[in-house]
Design brief:
The protein has 44 helices and 34 strands. By secondary structure, the protein is of the alpha+beta class. It holds the Pfam family KH_1.
Length: 1085
């Protein structure tokens, strides 16, 4: 590699040789002088060679060439640059000699043009920066911690810098993986950051949301931050007081505040706090309201056709940030038979309320809009009742109802599905009812409906036409005889309508009249083809149905060959064998029926003979199918649960998939209801079925009972006690949380019995209030049972000791009692183990008030609303008394220190009362220790302003006296205006106000500088009225000051001024040192 210095030396040597030989140097100047603009405005046509360039710059003797006259003064006049430089210009960027040999290898071989460095691969880097305030000990171990973290998390780079002035250390963490950076940051903060413990207050109703489903949110917070989060346990008593409506309209602003404690390093504690606050903010900004008070007859109008009105409400009132859910009208058309069936199992009820959820303010606006719409509909809507055949009601629901609502603004209300009523109600604006009636009739008559009356088909032949019609209907539906069509639908009557009306009518519905008539004829022929003599019904043991039917119905094939359809009832899923036993025989084979005699009597006799033969064969098959027997086991009732298993799974497994046996367990209810000898006792189990299966099942049940008995010896210790029925909800907890926790911790089974009267009839006769008790049964290991019993009884004692006290506290003082963020009331609740309820902001007066020592719930269980000035304390008697005493003490303190007086003063005195920069009012507050507030919005009211004074009576009196003194002084002031030439103002004021102060003192004013400055006001410079001087003060003093000012102004105005020319060098002598000579001359004059 040749250096620049070597190139220059070589060039100079060759230049000297060329001068001696009068030749051009063989090598161009490697560092030529710039004698022209290297970036000319126009492109260079052809770059000159290196030798030509050198010749143009230097002569042989080294002088400048004459071809560059513009450079004779050492400066080249470059033209304006209008474009980028020509980087290919040899004159602008001359070569530095021969280049180095290309490197050998793949980048330099085979004529490659690559001449750059090796390619650089950019890698994504995750980075985080944070700062910590470290103690001296933490700074000392900083390097150790950084090394430890870097060794633990490979690939992370840590940089740290400490600012000594602030004591803050800033960390910069870099790594390829963002997760590594986060883990390293958490490790550093845990090892170095200060350990702190802080509390964050949240509404009690949001406790579950902070925890999340199965602790999901809480787990995420602890995993991300490593902070220990302590959430206080839920109060079952408080939860039990919330009814359904209050849970749906929780006022988070007035909700009880509970503390959540965070423990960990300060950085991660702040992060965890932010995460919790984000969860709370998300919930408090949103609300869900259930409108249960709106009649469902208005739902179609609120929802609109296909939900159009609800969607428009979401858009207009909520800007798309709310959701309005209106249940469909069909949800209210309950099945009549299901509603009347007391034995039916309870089903989960649908939520039939309008639900509005989303942003709090927008939900409120949407609810108000819905309620206004409902109120308007109540006042303006009318109804029209008409009768339309029940079979046509199906054409007035769904899209048809939406079309009527969209075109006429009217709804169509139908009776329940199983209600035979033909009544149809049209509801809407009165002017639209005729249009809606026309539209409803058009929809109802839009299709062809044909009816086949099954009862009328054989009314003259059957002893019981309805019963026969039911058999025919069963044969058509179960036997699959109903014809199918792509354009026509066939509807069978519902069982409830058949039972209630005795009508068995099959409806054929379709738009094609010809197809409907054709199918009606087909169905009619099927019905007429089965007269009463072609049907036989008898009973067969349900356990034998499976045997007779056979695998895939093979047992019924012989009967079908003889022209008889055998219809068995559907199999039951119960284990006790309580299934239907009625079997129906129908002679329906076409070939067999065709071969019957033409004479009706002979035909009926032949049909009865065929059916009787099939019946005898089935009964023979019933006897041959299995040897049915029954066996009764005696198993203690307490072991029946083990035999049944969870949801009956154990017993189902014992019976097997084929269900050849029926097992019925005795119960105390059955025994008490049925006193006959055939009823099962409480400890009995009846097994019925084939002998072999009965033997197997009995053996299995005996084994399970023995194992359960053995387990019962170990884990079957039973303890019983009774509690007041009113305490049961508190023991169970919200959603069973309290009792579930106890079961999980101690592994015991806890059962609550039915409430029973403790006093009986005697107590009622004696006039005592009847009380009910509930029996609690604990089962499990003896030690665990005793511990569970101890805990429950302790809680019962606490509940029995619970009392309620109501205090009268003015509503305006509630904020002081609650404290900032509920701090004070939370401390009281924690200290005395009580619950303190303040009324909601929307509490109304006139409602019932809980009395001391009484329960705050009426007999119905609904929560009593508090009056605005009531505070309720609930808890143990001792704790309630302590909290009551402290609250009453605070009440007296607030009454003493929260006295309020309103003082009206003249508006003109406010400025003096306030003082410059509020100095006077601040002095009054400090000296009187009262709170003084000036109502500035009341300045124009009759020329007076209100001042509110709050504090003790003594403090109020002192503040009032001081304010009234200033106000009286201002009201008694006299104002004079004088006209004094502006050139005299400076003399009247004097140096630092000395002259005007002396004048005020001479007039009888105060000697205080600050006080004297308030009496005389001179205009400021550049004011419009520069010659007006204002005198303000008490009448006598203001008059005296005015006279003095007028006198002084007259003296100044009468002065004569002479001008004398004094040489500049003599002026200093006339003034004297410090103005002494000038003062002396002025005194003499």
């Amino acid at each position: 590699m040749v250096s620049a210095a070597d190139l220059m030396r070589q060039h100079q040597a060759q230049l000297a040789q060329a001068d001696a030989a009068s030749e051009l140097p063989p090598m161009a100047d490697p560092f030529p002088s710039l004698v022209q603009d290297p970036f000319p405005p126009a492109p260079v046509a052809a770059a000159p060679s290196a030798s030509a360039s050198a010749a143009a710059v230097l002569n042989g003797d080294g002088n400048h060439s004459n071809t560059a006259p513009s450079a004779t003064n050492g400066r080249a006049h470059a033209p304006a640059r209008s474009k980028q430089p020509d980087f290919s210009s040899e004159s602008a960027f001359p070569s530095l000699g021969a280049g180095a040999n290309p490197a050998k290898g793949q980048w330099g071989s085979k004529g490659s043009t690559w001449n750059g460095s090796a390619p650089v691969i950019q890698r994504a880097v995750a980075q985080q920066t944070f700062s910590l305030s470290l103690s001296h000990d933490s700074v000392a171990k900083l390097s150790t911690v950084m090394s430890k973290v870097q060794n633990k998390y490979r690939g992370v780079k840590i940089e740290a810098s400490t600012t000594r002035k602030t004591g803050t250390t800033t960390f910069v963490l870099k790594a390829a993986d963002d997760a590594v950076v986060k883990n390293a940051k958490r490790e550093i903060t845990v090892l170095l950051a200060k350990h702190v413990s802080t509390q964050i207050m949240i509404p009690a109703s949001l406790r579950a949301f902070v925890i999340g489903t199965k602790g999901k949110n809480l787990k995420a917070i602890t995993e991300q931050t490593g902070v220990k989060v302590h959430v206080p346990p839920r109060d079952p008593a408080a939860d039990a007081e919330l009814d359904a409506n209050q849970r749906n309209t929780i006022d988070y602003d007035n909700d009880e505040q509970i503390p959540i404690t965070l423990e960990g390093d300060e950085i991660n504690v702040k992060q965890a706090q932010a995460m919790i606050q984000a969860i709370v903010a998300e919930r408090t900004s949103k609300i869900t309201q259930r409108l249960t008070h709106i009649d469902h007859i208005f739902y179609p109008f609120i929802a609109g056709p296909k939900g159009a009105n609800a969607a428009q409400l979401e858009k207009q009132a909520g800007d798309g940030e709310i959701s309005v859910r209106v249940p469909p009208r069909a949800a209210f058309l309950h099945s009549k038979d299901a509603a009347d069936d007391d034995s039916a199992e309870p089903k989960r009820e649908r939520d039939l309320a309008i639900i509005v959820s989303g942003d709090r303010e927008k939900v409120t606006a949407a609810v108000a809009s819905i309620e206004a719409q409902v109120e308007d509909m109540k006042n303006s809507f009318r109804t029209l009742a008409i009768s339309i055949p029940k079979r046509q009601h199906r054409f007035l629901v769904g899209d048809a109802a939406n079309d009527i609502l969209a075109s006429t603004s009217c709804s169509v209300e139908l009776a329940a599905i199983d209600d035979p009523s033909d009544s149809v109600t049209i509801r809407g604006p009165q002017s639209q009812l005729p249009l809606a009636l026309t539209a409803a009739m058009e929809k109802a008559n839009a299709v062809r409906v044909e009816v086949v009356d099954v009862v009328a088909a054989h009314r003259s032949l059957a002893k019981d036409p309805v019963d026969h019609a039911k058999h025919v209907l069963r044969w058509l539906s179960v036997g699959g005889k109903i014809p199918r069509s792509s354009t026509v639908q066939i509807y069978l009557p519902r069982p409830a309508i058949v039972e209630s009306t005795g009508n068995v009518q099959i409806e054929i519905v379709g738009s094609d009249a010809a197809e409907v008539s054709k199918l009606r004829e087909t169905v009619q022929e099927l019905v007429k083809a089965v007269p009463p003599t072609f049907i036989e019904e008898f009973d067969v043991d349900p356990l034998l149905h499976r045997f007779i039917i056979g695998k895939k119905g093979q047992g019924l094939k012989p009967y079908e060959a003889r022209g008889v359809d055998v219809l068995f009832p559907p199999a039951s899923s119960s284990t006790d064998g309580d299934s239907r036993s009625d079997v129906l025989l129908v002679l329906a084979g076409s070939s067999v029926v065709a071969a019957l005699p033409a004479d009706r009597k002979a035909r009926d006799a032949k049909a009865s003979e065929i059916l009787e033969a099939v019946k005898q064969d089935i009964q023979k098959a019933q006897v041959a199918a299995a040897d049915i027997r029954s066996e009764t086991l005696t198993v203690p009732a307490k072991l029946h649960r083990a035999i049944l298993g969870p949801n009956g799974t154990t017993l189902n497994a014992v019976i097997g998939e084929d269900r050849l046996v029926a097992v019925k367990l005795g119960s105390s209810k059955a025994a008490s209801a049925d006193k006959s000898s055939t009823s099962l006792s409480e400890d009995s189990i009846l097994v019925r079925g084939p002998s072999s299966e009965v033997e197997r099942v009995v053996k299995e049940l005996t084994r399970i009972a023995a194992e359960a008995e053995q387990d019962n010896i170990i884990n079957g210790h039973v303890a019983e006690f009774s509690v007041d029925a009113n305490h049961v909800p508190h023991l169970v907890g919200r959603g069973g949380s309290a009792i579930t926790k106890l079961r999980e911790e101690l592994g015991v089974r806890i059962d609550f019995g039915e409430p029973s009267s403790a006093d009986g009839a005697d107590g009622v006769k004696k006039g005592r209030k009847p009380t009910s008790t509930t029996k609690v049964v604990l089962t499990g290991r003896k030690e665990n049972v005793e511990e569970a019993k101890k805990r429950l009884q302790t809680q019962v004692e606490r509940l029995a000791d619970e009392t309620t006290v109501t205090l009268k506290i003015p509503q305006e003082m509630h904020g002081s009692f609650i404290g900032q963020g509920g701090k004070y009331v939370t401390r009281l609740q924690d200290t005395y183990a009580v619950r303190i309820n303040f009324p909601n902001a929307n509490a109304q007066s006139g409602t019932s008030t809980p009395t001391e020592g009484g329960d705050d719930k009426p007999a119905g269980g609904a929560r009593v609303q508090q009056k605005p000035d009531e505070v309720i304390i609930k808890g143990g008697k001792k704790g309630v008394e302590g909290a009551k005493a402290e609250l009453l003490e605070l009440l007296e303190y607030e009454k003493e220190h929260n006295n309020v007086t309103v003082l009206n003063v003249s508006t003109k005195s406010i400025a003096r009362i306030m003082g410059k920069g509020g100095a006077t009012i601040k002095q009054i507050r400090d000296e009187s220790e009262a709170q003084v507030d000036v109502d500035r919005e009341d300045n124009e009211k009759n020329g007076t302003t209100s001042i509110k004074i709050r504090g003790t009576k003594k403090a109020i009196a002192a503040a009032k006296k001081a304010i009234e003194a200033i106000s009286s002084e201002v009201d008694a002031e006299q104002v004079y205006t004088l006209t004094i030439a502006p050139e005299h103002h400076g003399i009247l004021i004097g140096p630092q106000g000395s002259n005007i102060r002396d004048l005020i003192i001479k007039a009888g004013g105060p000697e205080d500088t600050k006080a004297s400055s308030q009496y005389v006001q001179f205009p400021r410079r550049n004011e419009k009225d520069a010659s007006t001087v204002t005198v303000r003060g008490p009448a006598s003093l203001a008059k005296a000051i005015r006279d003095e000012l007028e006198s002084a102004a007259q003296i100044l105005a009468s002065r004569v001024v002479y001008g004398v020319i004094v040489a500049p060098q003599a002026q200093r002598m006339l003034i004297g040192r410090g103005g002494s000579r000038q003062s002396e001359l002025q005194t003499q004059s």
